[in-house]
Design goal:
This protein is an all-beta fold. It is about 5% helix and about 30% strand. It is globular, with a radius of gyration of 17 Å. The termini are far apart.
Length: about 280
């Protein structure tokens, strides 16, 4: 049976005051990640923050020690010498003992990426030096196809530092929230047939949070969540398994939870990922 995973659809407060972020101690939508008693973040050790001049602008995940996966749209018009990838991080403001920072050596977007339709919206980042992985604070995650059972709507989790209010900056704390994936319908509202192709994209809709008051306050991806991973956790043959199935490509421009979000379907790019970045192993290339 599918376990409810981990998704960071950092919610939007539609009616915020004077256009300013309303951090009043209660962020509606998504759950903040917390460290263990030793101060180590163990929940999502594969999630990374990608920075431009030390400012977070996109998310991604660790593919292997030397490579990170994100969306190609994240990397458009970026100057490589200004980019840094940070692993082992939970808080974007306060330094943490588990953080490891690496500069970027190369960015490789998929060759047929279309910046209008966001088709093939995936990119690989080669780091100047490999991350030191330790399975707790910094770890890779294997990718695969969406896990489905007949007659069952698969659920997933999105993780990121995206804005928690429309027009706001990044969330200081990494957050996650659940979504459901629509795998039995080629239509993904509000996108047209050119903007959504089920063979290479995943349509994900918000799972209502019944603990919240009624109204528009539901988790949804927002600005600065781009490139962040969508994962699934399920009971495998021998143990619970977590896989990454997509990276965030498109979402409502006004962060409206009524609209679905679109993730690049990672399984389609199996050959390209292995040919470009090698196997998903711990050894440094």
């Amino acid at each position: 049976m599918m376990q409810q995973p981990i998704a960071c659809f950092l919610l939007v407060i539609i009616g915020f005051v004077a256009g300013a972020p309303g951090f009043n101690g209660r962020i509606i939508g998504g759950t903040p990640v917390t460290p263990d008693p030793d101060g180590i973040v163990t929940q999502f050790p594969y999630v990374v923050s990608i920075e431009d001049d030390f400012n977070h602008f996109c998310g991604g995940f660790i593919y292997n020690p030397k490579w990170v996966v994100t969306s190609a749209s994240c990397m458009e018009n970026k100057v490589i010498s200004r980019l840094t990838v940070v692993a082992g991080q939970m808080n974007l403001i306060d330094p943490e003992k588990t953080e490891e920072r690496q500069s970027v050596f190369k960015v490789i977007p998929y060759s047929t990426y279309n910046n209008v339709t966001r088709k093939d919206d995936i990119a690989l980042i080669e780091l100047s030096n490999a991350f030191t992985l330790d399975t707790q604070a910094r770890d890779l995650i294997k990718f695969n196809e969406v896990f489905t059972d007949e007659g069952y709507t698969p659920t997933g989790t999105f993780i990121g530092w995206g804005a928690t209010v429309l027009g706001g900056g990044f969330s200081p704390r990494l957050r996650y929230a659940d979504v459901k994936m629509v795998e039995n319908n080629p239509v993904c509202n509000p996108y047209n047939s050119e903007e959504f192709t089920i063979s290479s994209m995943i349509c994900a809709a918000t799972i209502p949070d019944e603990t919240l008051p009624s109204g528009p306050a539901e988790p949804t991806p927002c600005a600065l969540d781009d490139g962040s991973p969508l994962v699934q956790t399920y009971n495998g043959a021998n143990a619970e398994t977590t896989i990454v199935v997509g990276v965030l490509s498109k979402y409502s421009p006004i962060c409206d939870s009524a609209d679905s979000s679109v993730f690049t379907r990672l399984s389609v790019y199996y050959a390209w990922l292995y040919r470009t970045a090698g196997e998903q192993v711990y050894t440094t290339p």
